[in-house]
Structure formats: structure tokens, C-alpha cells
Amino acid sequence: MSKDWTKEELDQVSKAMIKNGHMGYEELCELLGNGVLAVESSELENDSKEEQA
Q1: What's this model's pTM, rounded to 2 decimal places?
Q2: What does the alpha-carbon distance between residue 53 and residue 18 come to, in Å, rounded to a whole number?
């Protein structure tokens, strides 16, 4: 089941994530918009395939 988050809820969760050493919501959105996570993910997949060969 999905949930629509309010701006206040996103802010609270983002602050908690940052406090625990993770990226916050805004940083995640920025990276997704830049395609950074897609590139890093495909690089990890390629590295894994090379190790298996």
C-alpha cells in the first residue's frame, strides 16, 4: 500500500535520514534527476559481472 507524504512528513523524515548518515530527500531527488544513481547502479552491475567471469 502506498502513501502520499505531506511536505512536513518529508521534511521530518529527511532530517532523520541525514542525522543517521544517509542522504536526505532533496539530495536523493537531485541525484535521481541527474541520473547519478542509474549510472552508479549500472557500474555496480558491470563490476559484479566482471568478477563472476
Answers
A1: 0.54
A2: 38
